[in-house]
Amino acid sequence: MIKRIPMRPACCMRGVSGSRRRVAERLAAAFAVDYSPWTKSHSRPHLRAAHRALRKVGMKAPRHTNTNQIPAVFGRVLREERKRQNISQEQLALYADVDRTFVSQIERGIRQPTLTTLIKLSRVLKVAPSALVARMERLLTR
Hints:
By secondary structure, the protein is mainly α.
């Protein structure tokens, strides 16, 4: 027997009546599958098995980092590097062709730079972008 899964989650079907509902139900019946993108499983048995295999050979599973900390930690790394080279936020912003307030917001963890901005900032600081990111990773994994 084929499992019937709605095309839209039930919460989105509320308020949809008449012919639109019938069309959605017919499409769901025509394209019945065992997978629904609206059901998310929070258990990850495939990861647990992989972590067990790593432990068997003496390796550790990767640590999970809190993604909310990333902007603040990157800002800290950028500020440390800027101060180490005695460059003001205004000078850094001027030479990197970004707004001074944007540099301030990056350093405070309010905004995150794009790859283009990261490369501009690192060129002004004469540091490889990968070095800034690597320093940030080290601080995150402490």
